[in-house]
Amino acid sequence: MWKKRTKYVVPTMVIVAIAAIFMLTNYYPEVPTYHKALIIISATLFSGLLSAVLFPHDEHKIDPKKDIESKQK
């Protein structure tokens, strides 16, 4: 189950980490380095959690509702 999700989760986390690093270094230089690290880590983990929950876990599974409807016809 988690093997199929990792192909969505890991790239999402990498993209968020790179974007957070870019934005924090270029647009917010006044933020302390320690806080930048905490923001980057928390944003990366939060995006990984969200993508693990929201992306489909089994894309080839047939919906049982559609299968029942096709048998009734």
Describe the structure in brief.
The mean pLDDT is 85. Helix content is 78%, strand content 0%.
Task: Explain this structure.
The structure is a single chain. This protein is mostly helical. The protein is rod-shaped and about 65 Å long. It is 78% helix and 0% strand. Helix 1 runs antiparallel to helix 2. It has one domain. The longest helix has 26 residues. The chain is built from three helices and no strands. Keywords: Membrane, Transmembrane, Transmembrane helix.
Kindly list the characteristics that best describe this protein.
78% helix; 73 residues; rod-shaped; 3 helices
Molecular shape: rod-shaped
Which secondary-structure class do the elements indicate? Answer: mainly alpha
Low-confidence stretches: none
Span between termini: 33 Å
Q: What is the element string, with H for helices and E for strands?
A: HHH
Strands, total number: 0
Percentage of residues in strands: under 5%
Largest sheet at a glance?
Answer: none
Number of helices, counting only DSSP H or I runs of 4 residues or more: 3
DSSP helix fraction: over 70%
Number of domains: 1
Mean pLDDT: 85
Radius of gyration of CA atoms, rounded to a whole number: 19 Å
